[in-house]
């Protein structure tokens, strides 16, 4: 009998969480773990108690900010970290699983929170049409291992 690895289970959960997102542009999920235990989960979208973009603006999504990004949404990584901190979790040495590689601002937050490893499934740079994954580059440069995770459980270095 073969069993899924914890890495695969957590990445599967991140994918399932992404389906909870109310964003009409992209659905992203994240799971934060430590020692094979889940610390926090989250997905992208507006702060609780504000708006659900797919209900309020089903055709266009929420209004855009000056840089063309969602004006209301928190990224999945932000939501996951904020919920963990709000509930007193210790993030030092934690691992994050996310369906989309972290953008640069989320990478800075991940680094500052003490998270030491990030697995991601899809490239933020490819999604946004950017030349490189700045967030992944930042994390790896400053000692946070950020690696692409393939659905069969293998880690890919590119």
From TrEMBL:
Domain of life of the native organism: Bacteria
Molecular-function GO terms, alphabetical: dCMP deaminase activity
Key words, A-Z: Hydrolase, Metal-binding, Zinc
Residues in CMP/dCMP-type deaminase domain copies: 5-132
The protein's required cofactors: Zn(2+)
Pfam families registered for this protein in UniProt: dCMP_cyt_deam_1
Signal peptide residues on this chain, from the entry's feature table: none
Entry's EC annotation: 3.5.4.12
Record has ATP-binding as a keyword: no
Enzyme class at the top of the EC tree: hydrolase
Presence of keyword Transcription: no
Family indicated by similarity: Belongs to the cytidine and deoxycytidylate deaminase family.
Protein name: dCMP deaminase
Species this chain originates from: Mucilaginibacter terrae
Organism taxonomic ancestry: Bacteria, Pseudomonadati, Bacteroidota, Sphingobacteriia, Sphingobacteriales
